Amino acid sequence: MNLRNLVEKMEFDLIQGNLDVDVESLTIDSRSAKKNSLFVCIVGFNVDGHKFIEQACENGASAVLCMSDTKIPEGIAGIKVKDTRAALAFVSNEFFSKPSEKFRLTGVTGTNGKTSVTYFIETILNSVDKKTGVIGTVETRINGKKFDFEKEGIHIATSTTPDTIELNMLFDKMIREKADDVIMEVSSHALELKKVDYCDFDIGIFTNLTQDHLDLHGSMERYLDAKARLFKMCKYGIINADDKYSDRIIEKSDCEIVTFGMEKDCDFKALNVEYFMDKVNFDVKFKNNLYHFSLNIPGRFSVYNALAAIGTAVKMGIDIVDIQRGVSLIKGVPGRIQNVKNNKGFNVIVDYAHTPDGLENIISAVREFTKGRVITVFGCGGDRDRKKRPIMGEISARLSDFSVLTSDNPRSEEPVSIIKDIEKGVKPVTENFVSVPDRKDAIFKAVGMAEKGDSVIIAGKGHEDYEIFADRTIHFDDLEVAKEALEELDL
Fold first, then answer.
1. Which of 272, 305, 328 is a domain's end point?
2. Do both 191 and 303 map to the same domain?
3. Would you state the pLDDT for residue 334?
4. Do 236 and 312 touch, CB atoms closer than 8 A?
5. Which of 35, 376, 433, 450 is the most exposed place for a label (fewest CB within 10 A)?
6. pLDDT of 215 over the 60 cut
7. Any idea what the CATH number is for the domain that residue 473 is in?
């Protein structure tokens, strides 16, 4: 593509060279630059891309997009803009010929429930023979098959929403695979850092908002503002009316709103809810009619996730009878209230809950079907929002019968120091806890003390198969370790 055609519709200053150069690829990593690349200088939290212009040009870049007066090698086109993140979103969209306009795009945002909602919608769509793409925390799938990033030469550096260039590459791939619908998780980071600017969202979904990511946003107000950006970018908003921030999200929205919930008046309201160990049954009141649903995943929060998917499917024009059937086909999401099968007479459950609200939801859900004690294993991530540590400690202390405090990706912090922060919320509530810094030992401890009728919750990592320390990252899978601990009981 000619550089002129790529940038002519945005505001910029040509500071060097001319626009009549070829651009065959985009990159923000100087090491990935090659012949005829456009190198975009992003100012990150730790690295300033402007410092790597020379390296990018040595590797073949034909043009540089920057936002400060900086030296650019002779013969290289230089373009200056006010905000390279916004410009990156624009040129990525143009380079891949506005891919998100060629399918129906649904974005899911919120602190908890994003992954489950994308899985639920995917299942409903697949049940009516729609071809789908899903982008999210656990994996990316195209028509039900896990996408092989390495094979396709796409590098994904973030776990929830890919960076702008990679995201548009995925969209382009999904078009070639003839996807009718793409459902993606949209993180607050992606919204704040403009990764999804120029994405043509048809539907936006708001699940909930609780304390998380304040290390990036600084305050709940800024966190809310980041989430609300999605609803200025979509045509229809599907909003959880029961969330205390829902009115604020609606106020900040520029789209048509549909609401769902279990408590307040809303467009899709769940009634007559019945909770079981392995499922939940409920009715949904919609336009003065009552429709029955059966979901094979337990918990109150699962009802909210299902309501979000049901409301979305109706807005997509899917017949309510087909939606009922689609919901009945939904299976569990990896690492989300995932039961570890055993013959010991007690439950062992792995869940991704890593926020105060997520932890409260999973403990409350498990409490609904547990006859004995609820034993909760959890920790808090290092180099992340420290304010939530005692809050999560208080929640586990109040709702569990026993808590095992441990590590969860301590990163550069000392695990013991993180646990002490959690203990500040536990100690005023109960003495029924123990601190075990080694996560494997903690899981073995909890499983070893469980008796018939009890439930052991292993919270925080879910589908993740690694643990991050200051000097290394090791393989660690809660599901695998839980199975090891259960096998040891047979010895």
1. 328
2. yes
3. 84
4. no
5. 35
6. no
7. 3.90.190.20
pLDDT for 214 beyond 60: no
The 10s digit of each residue's pLDDT in 55-87 is 999 999 999 999 988 899 999 999 999 999 999
Beta-sheet strand order (sheet of 234-240): 145-146, 141-142, 132-135, 181-185, 104-109, 201-206, 234-240, 256-261, 268-275, 280-286, 289-295
Q: Residues 290, 348: one domain? A: no
Of the residues 95, 120, 142, which one is the last residue of a structural domain?
95
Cβ atoms < 10 Å from Cβ of 71: 10
CA distance linking residue 173 with residue 249, whole number of Å: 32
Mean pLDDT, all residues of the chain:
93
CATH code of 309's domain: 3.40.1190.10
* 454-470 pLDDT per residue, tens: 999 999 999 899 999 99
Query: Structure pTM?
Result: 0.86
Are 114 and 300 in contact by the 8 Å Cβ rule? The answer is no
Structural domain contains residue 148: yes
123 & 169 share domain: yes
Strand arrangement of the beta sheet that strand 77-80 belongs to: 13-16, 77-80, 63-66, 37-40, 25-27
**Residue 267: alpha-carbon gap to chain centroid:** 25
One-letter amino acid at 8 equals E
Percent of the chain clearing pLDDT 90 (strictly above)? 84
| Radius of gyration over every alpha carbon of the chain, rounded to an integer in angstroms | 24
Q: Provide the number of structural domains found in the chain.
A: 3
- What is the residue range of 434's domain? 338-488
Task: Name the token pair of 201.
Answer: 């969202």
Confirm whether 333 is domain-assigned: no
Return d(Cα 369, Cα 277) in angstroms, integer: 5
Question: In angstroms, rounded to a whole number, what is the distance separating the alpha carbons of residues 16 and 19?
Answer: 9
